[in-house]
Amino acid sequence: MKNNLSSLRDLASAFGKAPVDPDTAVPSTSATSDDSLVYSTDSGRINQQQEKTVTPSDGFAKVRRETKGRKGKGVVVISGLGLDNKALKELAKKLKKTCGSGGSVVDETIEVQGDKREVIQQVLEKAGFKVKLTGG
């Protein structure tokens, strides 16, 4: 090891890093750059590409009724489906149309307004899901 570190190349080799050639260096704004970069004066705010992962299903679609945080209004929450966002939205549309009520997709769950657990159970079983009613 050199005792005299006269350049960055010598410093990089002292720490076991391969020296970087400026001719073949990748610009810092590329997708292969450091993932912790948040802002660059070269290109502004850097939007990170985050991969959406779907939680795998345990084989049961859990259907429960909730009222907490909804001013006493009841909704049926369906979770544990193991579907991607597009498939969840299609299934939610089918469930809302069958129940004749509103609802939404929140994270990896479907919320349908009202207490229509039996109807939702039948629709999910026809779609090939094993359904487990949870809660009271």
TrEMBL record:
Note the CDD domains from the entry: YciH_like
Query: Which residues lie in coiled coils?
Result: none
In which organism is this protein found? Colwellia ponticola
State the residue spans of region: Disordered. 16-39
> Which GO molecular function terms does the record list?
mRNA binding; translation initiation factor activity
The domain of life for this entry's organism is Bacteria
Q: Which family does this protein fall into?
A: Belongs to the SUI1 family.
Polar residues bias locations: 26-39
Q: Which InterPro entries match?
A: DENR/SUI1_TIF (IPR050318), SUI1 (IPR001950), SUI1_arc_bac (IPR005872), SUI1_dom_sf (IPR036877)
Q: Which GO terms describe its biological process?
A: formation of translation preinitiation complex; regulation of translation; translation reinitiation
Annotated SUI1 domain residues: 65-128
The molecule here is called: Stress response translation initiation inhibitor YciH
Gene3D superfamilies named among the record's database cross-references: SUI1-like domain
Q: Which UniProt keywords apply?
A: Protein biosynthesis, Translation regulation
